[in-house]
Write the structure tokens for this entry.
Amino acid sequence: EDQVTQSPEALRLQEGESSSLNCSYTVSGLRGLFWYRQDPGKGPEFLFTLYSAGEEKEKERLKATLTKKESFLHITAPKPEDSATYLCAVQAASSNTGKLIFGQGTTLQVKP
Amino acid sequence: GAVVSQHPSRVICKSGTSVKIECRSLDFQATTMFWYRQFPKKSLMLMATSNEGSKATYEQGVEKDKFLINHASLTLSTLTVTSAHPEDSSFYICSAKPGGSSYEQYFGPGTRLTVT
């Protein structure tokens, strides 16, 4: 069964304290792995798509990496405005609809 | 680019009435749209997938007669919650997938439904 597990469930950081969020996945052929940011009461905001092991993408203080079993979202020197829930999702190669399988998310709080 | 809107953002309705939520892709054509439901502090639960001009595909456990989905054009999908009850109160989010080789989905801002 295709599955996505994110850890930790919640993370508190001091401003400037770098850390990583983990997304472990089991899927019968990966078409793509997606990272989204969701603020309270809003829809998810697209961050990155990763397609193959070894791929990396960066955007401001965020860097996403991918292996055959997991993805990491590295946050360098976070600021309070980075506080949000970060969602990881995978799309199986077998899906002909583009269905995404989401993890439970990691809620990040960055304190000034 | 890749903007998706939803309307209304919030709606309160009485038990037994129906509510329609619109999802629009503003700057791209969406061959496929998805409807999700999200409970407090939980992840997104896919309800159904709709393709323009064809019937929606519902996930297991989702009542298709209660949650009517119409994808009438390449930029508009609607979700109608029929005979709403308090347990239907939730945050409903749509996403849209551009046509072609793109795999990304872009999400709307969500609709908060409260059934009294």
Notes: The two ends of chain B are 37 Å apart (CA to CA). Residues 97 and 116 of chain B are 33 Å apart (CA to CA). Chain B has a mean pLDDT of 93.
